[in-house]
Amino acid sequence: MQIFKTIHIRKIHMAAAAILIAAVAAAGAFLPPAAQKAAAVLSAEGKRELPIYCVNTSEKKVAVTFDAAWGADDTDELLRILEENDVKATFFLCGYWVEKYPEEVKKIAEAGHDLGNHSATHPHMSQLSAEQITQELEKCHNAVKELTGIEMDLFRPPFGEYNNTVIQTANANNYLVIQWDIDTLDTKRKEGKHFVSPLFI
């Protein structure tokens, strides 16, 4: 049984994005949201709750995800690269990003990519109460629904941080919690190498 990998790109140079997306396309890989929903991992009562990291499948597929929290200068170029390679991705959107870049959100949705919730304000969710977590989810959810009509059902906690309260509260609000199991580490700067201004982080 193969594993449906989740590749997470937080901040990436467009040339690197093109290479990665082309490789994904060559493997016949794209993101079907329903495949992620099929593998919610919930531990027994009293045990640690876990998000979805990957999905067992007999098919050769990976899921490409982006977290939209900062700039949007390269959105058009990224969407062009995805379209040219026939790749669909999931974009996890912060509420304030949605408010600042509504036209980019519409473009992403109209291109057929999946939209996910990345909270309203990008807080450390594991430090919040269930009520505060719900408010973060609802504010972002409502902003996206009002703008696109889409009812999101996938959630990625900022910083990849979660605890039982985060996962249980997300589930109670009809969200599946999605992590990544391969990080491109594109936020790491190396001597002599530069990245363009962040698109997704």
TrEMBL record:
Residues 60-201 form the NodB homology domain. The keyword Signal applies. Keywords: Signal. Gene3D superfamilies: Glycoside hydrolase/deacetylase. The keyword Plastid does not apply. It comes from the Bacteria. SUPFAM superfamilies: Glycoside hydrolase/deacetylase. Residues 1-29 form the signal peptide. It holds the Pfam family Polysacc_deac_1. PANTHER family: GLYCOSYL TRANSFERASE-RELATED, POLYSACCHARIDE DEACETYLASE PDAB-RELATED. This is Polysaccharide deacetylase family protein. It comes from Anaerotignum lactatifermentans.
